[in-house]
Write a structure and sequence with these properties.
The protein is an alpha+beta fold. It contains nine helices and twelve strands. About 40% of the residues lie in helices and about 25% in strands. The radius of gyration is 20 Å and the shape is globular. The relative contact order is 0.11.
């Protein structure tokens, strides 16, 4: 009797864990807003190495499905976002900052006050104004791009995706102060910060959740 009872408890626990460990894929922002994603349990989420990012570009995470090439291709090229439990990932192939591309794969993200914020390398004017190595600005073509890429491989900033327009905006100092308008204590603390790096921005974004 005890064995049967214990087995039943273990089964219930396994079901509960599986129910909690949901992985949901979304084709676009509209599906996120309508909560109409497809639920899976087989996604493989891997952190990409710095060497991979330096040589091939792209974001921090690769998401795929073992032994399912078709679904893996969909995740790589057509899926917009993935939610695994409480963690979000945005397919950077599907977004741009102004006319600049982020490359493929997935960037970690947070959902705050009805908007999605993802963490990725600085691109375009963000890279030029904040972090790009000085030598890279004096070179052109593949050599200059390689130097810029290697210099930025460890740097991350946050971007906001507007759910209504899908427009991507850099979350720099001015934007962060705007977001903190109704939180005077946080705003005052943020004004003491000297960085627009992802670690600093994330700290304040999470306080707004």
């Amino acid at each position: 009797m005890k064995t049967i009872l214990l087995s039943g408890i273990l089964v219930c626990m396994m079901v509960a864990v599986q129910a909690d460990a949901q992985q949901i894929i979304y084709a676009n922002m509209k599906e996120i807003l309508r909560a109409e994603g497809d639920t899976l349990t087989t996604l493989k989420i891997e952190k990409r190495s710095k060497n991979q990012q330096m040589l091939m570009g792209g974001a921090d995470y690769k998401i795929s499905v073992d032994n399912n090439a078709g679904l893996s291709r969909y995740l790589k090229s057509r899926c917009f976002a993935v939610r695994a439990d409480t963690s979000w990932y945005v397919n950077t192939r599907k977004v741009r900052y102004k006319r600049f591309r982020f490359g493929g794969w997935y960037a970690p993200a947070v959902w705050v006050q009805g908007k999605l914020y993802f963490c990725a390398q600085p691109v375009g004017s963000v890279a030029a104004e904040t972090i790009t190595p000085a030598d890279a600005t004096r070179l052109r073509g593949e050599i200059g791009a390689a130097i810029a890429s290697s210099g930025l491989v460890n740097d991350r900033v946050y971007y906001e995706i507007d759910p209504e327009t899908s427009k991507v905006e850099f979350v720099g100092r001015e934007k962060m102060l705007e977001l903190l308008t109704n939180f005077p204590d946080l705003r005052e603390a943020y004004q003491e910060e000297c960085s627009e790096a992802a670690a600093v921005t994330r700290k304040y974004l999470l306080r707004l959740k």
